[in-house]
Amino acid sequence: MLAIIGGTGLTQLSNLEITHRQVIRTPFGEPSGALTFGLINQHEVMFIARHGYGHTIPPHMVNYRANMWALQEQGATRIVSVASVGGIRSDLLPGTIVVPDQIIDYTHGRFSTYFDGREKPVTHIDFTHPYCLKMRGHILEAARMAREKLVDGGVYAATQGPRLESAAEINRIERDGADMVGMTGMPEAALAKELGLSYAALAVVVNYAAGRGNSRDGVHLEAVSIVAQPAMARVKKVLEMLVESDGD
Ligand code: HPA
To answer: Measured from the CB, is residue 143 less than 6 Å from ligand 1?
Structure first.
């Protein structure tokens, strides 16, 4: 089954016909909220709001392990993560939707593995391609069918938050090779790999990163929802097509 993780700006799916909600407990604690089950165009999907349905859980406090565990336990085999980002690369203007293909992790102090020596022996997963290539292909194909333009590829920098970055940090992150910056992409992607889930992301650019474009003198958070709303409507159109792909 396809699971959708909604981020900032996507705490519910208006095109989801809800059938039931389920509270799940996991060996790693509680997920961000109940899992929502429902139908999009007759296809069963699962949804969870990463920051909680009331948007109360900051990025560094999200229980990523519980979220991914719960989704898998309830039958998710593929996961599309929707996340908002700040744009660094010059073509990633606010409103752009990107399917990233690489990650740089700047987060710290988060529970970032299931292999912590307690229940399972230490295992080093391969992370050369942090996102599932097949899943990325399905998303890009869904976008073509929905006639929505997505950017194919880009390096996602995961920062710790919850504060935004300084302009110098963005310059450094760009020198490192990142194209966009968000706070929730890690450890989510690594945990998905550990569980053997097909995982890819839709990164919605909601602002210029600090020091860039109209964020030169500061990031204007009040403008974010104006950009996010129409972009999330486009994300939903892509998701409607994505559910049609069978996942093979
Ligand atoms: N930085 C980090 N995370 C973000 C940003 C940003 O500028 N915009 C949305 N999420």
So the answer is: no
- State how far the alpha carbon of 239 is from the alpha carbons of 67, 94, 234, in Å: 20, 20, 9
DSSP 179: S
Atom of ligand 1 nearest to the CA of 219: 7
State pTM to two decimals: 0.95
Domain harbouring 229, CATH code: 3.40.50.1580
The closest residue, in CA terms, to atom 2 on ligand 1 is: 182
- Whole-angstrom Cα distance, residue 153 to residue 100? 4
**pLDDT value, residue 248:** 58
Q: Which domain holds residue 101?
A: 2-245
Radius of gyration of the chain (CA): 17
| Mean pLDDT score, 144-162 | 97
Q: Is 165 in the pocket of ligand 1 (CB under 6 A)?
A: yes
